Amino acid sequence: MYPYVYVFGYPLSSYGIMVSIGFLCCIAYCFIRYKKRGEIDPATTIFLGLWIALGIFVGSHILYGITNIDNIITILTHTDEFFENFWAGLSLLGAQIGGMVFYGGLIGGAIAALIYLKTTKKDVGLYCDLLVPCIPLFHLFGRIGCFLGGCCYGIEFPIGFTYTNSLSEAANGVCRLPLPLIEAFFNLLIFILLAVLHSKNTIRKGSLWMVYAFTYPVVRFIDEFFRGDEIRGFWGPLSTSQWISIGIFALALIYFIIGKVRGIKFINKTPATGEAER
């Protein structure tokens, strides 16, 4: 739709703008929660955010590279051609890991957060509950950016939008299902759900992630059937993201079952106050 916004004649990526807005909204959300919960250390939250950003960057590119593993192997096994034109070959190789996949960023960010919280001996459950609602909030704006940029486009559909200047040439000239906007809407609903549960002290401390793991993977698994692009890779009948969705949902289910067997109560019955034990 509008992959670039021109400011004083300079092009700015619409996706980059939306991601920046999403990041600022996450900071605002954390600040609001910090004001209501004095036990959260703002300095820790800032450093944690930086670690998560690094994890997102690395993880999203690694998973993108995995989805292009066949191309990478082909390039690396043709070393004679690669070194004949080294810079062109390096550029081609870089293109295979240059994109970003959401689930890779999610996994990378989670690992980075866990490493930081464990090494600094912070309360993992407390900060996990603070940051989990930020995932769909950030993703909401990211998907709007996808729609504006024309990536992650939907299948051909009689009701939707026709791209004319998408960054993906294959998307142009055909009326397509506005899948990024649909997923953005569901991310908004998930964010509201998580934010309400957190503010009302409904879920046991450290277990809010489970609500996200039971909701978003279902949305992602379904909407993958309506994607018009195929660059994200397939493993058998399902896409990479669908397999990861199954894995995340299964992990949450196993965690829930083990908790129930051990007699853990995931629903709090205490009053919704900032001082309540979570």
How does this model look, in words?
32% of the residues are buried. The radius of gyration is 21 Å and the shape is globular. It has 278 residues and is mainly alpha-helical. The chain contains eleven helices and six strands. The protein starts with a strand and ends in a 17-residue tail after the last helix. The model is unreliable at 271-278 (pLDDT under 50). The strands form three sheets. It has a two-stranded antiparallel sheet with strand order 1-2. It has a two-stranded antiparallel ribbon with strand order 3-4. It has a two-stranded antiparallel ribbon with strand order 5-6. The protein has helices at residues 14-36, 42-67, 69-77, 79-84, 86-95, 102-119, 124-131, 134-149, 179-199, 208-223, 240-261; strands spanning 4-7, 10-13, 156-162, 175-176, 234-235, 238-239. α8 (134-149) packs antiparallel against α9 and α10 runs antiparallel to α11 (240-261).
Poorly predicted segments: 271-278
Structural class assignment: mainly alpha
Reported for the largest beta sheet, the result is: 2 strands, antiparallel
Write down the overall geometry: globular
Write the element-wise H/E pattern from the N-terminal end onward: EEHHHHHHHHEEHHEEH
- Give the oligomer, counting copies of the same chain as homo and different chains as hetero: single chain
Q: Summarize the amount of helix as a percent range.
A: 55-70%
Instruction: Please tell me how large the radius of gyration is.
Output: 21 Å
- How many domains? 1
* Average of per-residue pLDDT values: 83
- Give the termini distance in whole angstroms: 45 Å
- How many β-strand stretches? 6
Q: How much of the polypeptide forms β-strand, as a percent range? A: 5-15%
Strand arrangement across the biggest beta sheet: 1-2
Q: Treating each run of at least 4 consecutive H or I residues as one helix, how many helices?
A: 11
